[in-house]
């Protein structure tokens, strides 16, 4: 069972982090600002189950089936303290709604420089 997970899509841009305790944050790029979401917006286990069919091994670009595909990353921290790293590809249609749900549940104003999802 995941303790926490983080979804970044496309790679390095929008990031959603969710913990087992119900804490969740939205972040953008390398900016240190993490915007808290309403408690309980996401359930880490349900989110993991939604993502699981889309997770691929984290291979170097030259070893991927389509090295030019738009990709993102998923990191999963398990009960044993191990972090697994995965790739997701061409995921706009199902990741977009996750980020929109996050954006709809922010607990403070989104900075004016924050790009749209």
Poorly predicted tracts of residues: none
**Overall pLDDT:** 91
| Count of DSSP-assigned helices | 2
Major β-sheet, in short?
A: 7 strands, antiparallel
Beta-strand content bin: 25-35%
The total strand number stands at 7
Alpha-carbon distance between the two ends: 29 Å
Backbone structural class: alpha+beta
Name the overall outline: globular
How large is the radius of gyration? 14 Å
Helix content: 10-25%
Strand line-up of the largest beta sheet:
4-3-2-1-6-7-5
Topology order in helix (H) and strand (E) letters? EEEEHEEEH
Structure description:
With 117 residues, the protein is an alpha+beta fold. It is built from two helices and seven strands, in the order ββββαβββα. It has a seven-stranded antiparallel β-sheet with strand order 4-3-2-1-6-7-5. The longest helix is centred in the C-terminal third of the chain and has 13 residues, at 92-104. The protein is globular, with a radius of gyration of 14 Å.
Primary descriptors:
single chain, 117 residues, alpha+beta, 7-stranded antiparallel sheet, 2 helices, 18% helix
